[in-house]
Amino acid sequence: MIYTEDELVKKVKSMDGKPYPAYKTIKGVYQFEGYELWFDHIQGDPFANPSKVRVRMPIAVAEFPEDTYKTDERGVALCDFLSRCFCHAIRKYNNKREGSGKSGIVEMDRPGQEILRRSSLVIIDDCIEARFLVGLPAFGRRIAGKAAAHIFSDVITRIVHDSLYYQRLEKVRLYQHIETVEDAEFIRNSLANRGLIGFVADNAVLPRESGIDSRPLSAKSLIPFESCQSLKVDLMLPNHGKITGMGIPGGVTLIVGGGYHGKSTLLHALENGVYNHIPGDGREFVVTNADAVKIRAEDGRSIQNLNIDPFISNLPFNQETTFFSTANASGSTSQAANILEALEVGANTLLLDEDTLATNFMIRDERMRALIGKDKEPITPFIEHVRGLYEKKGISTVLVMGGSGDYFPVADLVIGMIEYRPHDLTAESRQIVNRYPVSDNHDVSPPSEIHRIPLPNSVDPSKGKKQIHIRPEGRTLLRFGEQQVQVGAVEQLVHPSQLRAIGYAIHFARHYIDGHRSIREICSLVMEEIYKEGLDCLTKPEIRGDVALFRCHEFAATLNRFRVLKVKQRGGVER
């Protein structure tokens, strides 16, 4: 049954001064002018998590032209834009709160610099639906009915009118938002045909404000990006027309240069280039192929039943490496595992930065080889694999390496960052190789395909009386039932809502975890379901406004970090 706005206002005013649980009676749907207000969950206490509320408005009423949502990518961009408008309107109109606990708070899951598919604002059943939280007002633990009526009939109405009606929005900004996403996707879809794995537009702003602030650096001394001539690529975009920038070809690319000259900044932009960015971010047209994965060492992580033999073998005391498991990996074993697990779910580009790598995993120079012979060294360094990965598997590598020239002989391209500008130093690096030749030992067989199968019931989201307990803490920790899953080293997670969605996706995937399907197959089935049914499929029957789309790579990376996970290798045994 649908009630009216007047009925809601009268009901909450009549509750003034009553015990807080009386709010439970307002659960339901109310018709306002132009939209419906849905109460899906009512908090039981003013100090509890706020109530879950939705606004649903027909697109015909909102009057959005069809070209703003006619394709999937345009629809995602429109929803992202509207969610930002909604959050802005909240800050504008919800700035005076009083009462106990979370009284009067209105919150929507706030997006960052990236444009992600989110559950906070969706287009569903020819309607625009905004999902947010409201702290129902109280003084002590008694209802503040007049304050509640003000929130519903005034504050939320103003927010809706300012953010969800086409005629009230800045149309130039809206279309710029949509067209930026469309053009970035055009670049990403064009990379493979051009033999590229990444593109960095001229005049891009790569540096960020800080390590915890992903907004563009605003310093006056900022140097915009400008491609060197040999790597310059012209692209004709559907909306922005012709742009130029640096194309990074497939193969083995080194990024070299002195300290503080922009090497890691360039790599960081590329690792975030798997996502689209808002206009004004500076990285709108810094685009990387969708299956590029950042790799780093990760001391202390758990590894379950993984064949690390291509990189690490002949360990002392006959330790098993073809079915390797540990609760406390070293830098080298964790880096080997991170590479192999990324390849397991389809990574085609590896991004690495020497600052976060295990040195003994990356290189062994001539002097060390002379001192410690191959028969006494269990690690086959990455330098011996990097050519075979590309030539035999088509897997490219982009590596920041400022402290060693050992990778010069295996590199297809050497980009030198000098005072924040790229220079093609490939020819110079090859001259150096000719002057200082090293032994060639770079033809080992690349890792074979991995198919690990999670065992049923090895991950459980329940905790005490709660059947489902899933909660992220920022982007670095997932609480999943009794488990605390550390994901701080999964650097391409860019928003806590992605990690929350991954937690629900792992719970959702339990009906695919049957002891026969591999991790990659399970990931593919989950992603297929999301694209078919939307993010709501992960949290049914609950409707949440705080989950965001992730990639299969971060899904698998999180699953692999469960310390209770049990897997077997296809054709192998449980370990």
Description:
- The termini are far apart.
- A hairpin with a 2-residue loop joins β2 and β3.
- The radius of gyration is 26 Å and the shape is globular.
- It folds into 3 domains: 2-169, no CATH class; 292-435, no CATH class; 452-569, no CATH class.
- Strands 1, 2, 3, 4, 5, 7 and 8 form a 7-stranded mixed β-sheet that branches. The chain has a 6-stranded mixed β-sheet with strand order 19-22-23-16-24-25, with helices on both faces.
- It is of the alpha+beta class and 575 residues long.
- It has 14 helices and 30 strands.
Question: Quick gist of this model?
Answer:
By secondary structure, this protein is an alpha+beta fold.
Determine the fraction of residues in helical runs and give it as a percent range: 25-40%
What's the story with the biggest beta sheet? 7 strands, mixed
Overall form: globular
- Spans of at least 5 consecutive residues whose pLDDT stays below 50 are none
- Give average pLDDT, whole number: 94
Instruction: Provide the gyration radius in Å.
Output: 26 Å
How far the N terminus sits from the C terminus, by CA atoms, comes to 55 Å
Total number of strands = 30
What oligomeric state is this? single chain
Tally the helices. 14
What structural class do helix, strand and pairing data support?
alpha+beta
- The fraction of residues in strands falls at 15-25%
Number of domains: 3
